[in-house]
Amino acid sequence: MSQSLTKVNRSAATLTKNRTEGSISPISGMCVTCVDGCIGMCEIGKSAYRGHEVIYPQPFGVITTASEKDYPVDYSHFNIMGTAVGAVGIEADSDKAIFPNVNLEVRFGGDKGIKFRYPWIIPGIGSTDVAKNNWDGLAIGSALAGTGLTIGENVVGMDSQAVIKDGHILDTVDLKNRVRLFQDHQIDGYGATIVQANVEDTRLGVQEYAIEKLGVEIVELKWGQGAKDIGGEVKIKDLKKAQLLYKRGYVVIPNPTDPKVIESFNDGNFKEFERHSRVGMVNEEDFAKRVEELRKAGAKYVTLKTGAYRPADLARAISYSTKYGIDLLTVDGAGGGTGMSPWRMMNEWGVPIVELHSLLYQYAQQLSDKGMNVPALALAGGFTFEDQIYKGLALGAPFVKLIGMARSAIAAVMVGKTIGKTIANNEVPVYVERFGNTIDEIFVTAADLRNELGNEAFDKLPTGAIGLYTYYERLAQGLRQLMCGSRKFALEHLERDDIACLTHEAADISGIQYIMDADQKEVEKILSS
């Protein structure tokens, strides 16, 4: 059995470390000998002079963060099963059953009208700087690849240029730009943008505006995420911006309209405000009412995202989604993360991904066994590569259609953007320069994209978008290879017995067979014949 480990009192995320790196109390995380006279490099010490600032990962705005806790069970405790026999979804012919012929396209939604080229989505990245500053790469890269991304909470409320009258949005620069960046680069109707809403967004009428003014077809209700169990939060370094957000109804700490707070800020006693969103209050009546309101407003599809809450809340999520015809339910487990969640919360709250996703499968199967039409499901929580994607799809088969990945997508965009800057400045680092000095030489997908889009359109692409597209191309080929090895040539053929557990604990949690028990009946039949 693996051991659950947490790094307490020191982490790169909080820019803290212990004085005695080798002698640390495993319970408290403190140095075994805490010395009078230490300047306080650990989290306790830093909290002694920076207080609540140390709750959050740093530096804000240029990082993404995720839990560093080593959970007892994770997706590495499963292995993918291959076979030397036959083919499913294609003729069992060695000249035809080759990995490039694996079909990764997925369709879902009430009338199966949402179509993705690949079975993954970027779920819910919103008003944080790291999302906004990389949105061109995220939106354009997703559109070119034919996948989807969700515009997360608070984008309109955070937009200083938004026109708001009587508490309702009339016009917005940021949301309009985010939607249109995707729409302008979408190819053959593949992929989608989803506009999410929390309490503040709903009060502002963000989704109605997106449907009516921007032509958005898919909107998402948000109960929460895997990284935190409170609303979204950001840091604000500008007093006027903090006062604007306070006026728009956000929780801003400290109160930026208090004269004493203003004086203290102007004196440099503190340098940033915190903007927090409210937590929603879920009940079935209000849920049903809001779904109906959105459909009447013109939403073609309505989705729901929930977080790593207790099992009863997961049961509510899938029960309400099934009952009221939700088109996609995204379930985000503890351990993932993208933005600015409180660091200890990100590590220590919620149901981890394997446990949460296993419960989700159990609940979906129970409803399906009753003859109910379970919506398409998406799993999220720290997925990054093709093997994890395969395992998530198999663990939740046949209900899971998509894997949600945000942090890795942002990383691909940031790297692509950075490489583009080094090319423009003739400062390509040696590590990258071995591949060349131009976009066409460095990005392996450049030739295909240039051929498909034409020279003029290709030359206008931000390199962040090329980075995301290229990362996705790698994932697609890797997933095709894994599926070919399992002789499954389309996603609908993946099954739970395409993976096996390496530990009894993983088997007990997931209901997937322990590897030494796999294929027992077939083995006995083969040997007895």
Provide a descriptive summary of the structure in words.
With 529 residues, the protein is α/β, with parallel strands linked by helices. The chain folds into 4 domains: 12-55, no CATH class; 61-223 and 283-411 and 468-529, TIM Barrel; 233-276, no CATH class; 412-467, no CATH class. Helices cover 38% and strands 14% of the residues. It is built from 21 helices and 17 strands. An 8-stranded parallel beta barrel has the order 4-5-8-9-13-14-15-16, surrounded by 7 helices. A 3-stranded antiparallel β-sheet has the order 10-12-11, with helices on one face. Strands 1-17 form a two-stranded antiparallel sheet. The longest helix has 23 residues, at 463-485. It is globular. The relative contact order is 0.14.
Brief description of this entry?
By secondary structure, this protein is an alpha/beta fold.
Could you please say which CATH topology of the largest domain applies here? TIM Barrel
Number of strands: 17
Q: Oligomeric form of this entry? A: single chain
Largest sheet: 8 strands, parallel, barrel
Helix content: 25-40%
Terminal CA distance reads 37 Å
Overall pLDDT score: 94
User: What is the count of DSSP helices, taking H or I runs of 4+ residues?
Assistant: 21
How are the strands of the biggest sheet laid out side by side? 4-5-8-9-13-14-15-16
Outline: globular
What is the CATH superfamily classification of the largest domain? Aldolase class I
Low-pLDDT residue spans: none
Level-1 CATH class name of the largest domain: Alpha Beta
Q: Tell me the β content.
A: 5-15%
Number of domains: 4
- In the CATH hierarchy, what is the architecture of the largest domain at level 2? Alpha-Beta Barrel
Radius of gyration: 24 Å
